[in-house]
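If I may wish for something, please walk me through the protein I am sending here so I can picture the backbone:
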Amino acid sequence: MSHRQIHSSLKVLLVSNLEKSKHYYREVLGCEVTEWWVIRDGFTGLAIKLLQADSLEDVSPNRCARGYNQTAPDVYCYVENWTALDELYAEFKEKGARIVIEPWIDKEAGPWKEFAIVDPDNYCIAFGGTNENKQI
């Protein structure tokens, strides 16, 4: 196949309160919020479709997964480098995001650095990446 058929993908989340979630993604995560989407850095960045759940039982964040000491991410965002990652962390923390995994470095995986937050429905959004120019 010579041409790219899939340009991007996104996550669909069922939320308990659509307006509250839209507010969070706009004010805390700095997303553009439309009737259908929350987007940061275009559809190839953080892109989520939020849908109002019929009932609270339908809101279902991931639970623990093998290999994770904490909740498994529902959405994972790859970040260009550690400078961008640190900037996101500082921005989200300043705006009141609930950080569930503080920034940490896995020296055996790249090295890889990541952190994670949760939204009002406890969906976990992780941010991480490598940084070849960073000495650890």
About this structure: The first helix runs from residue 18 to 27. The chain has one domain: 11-130.
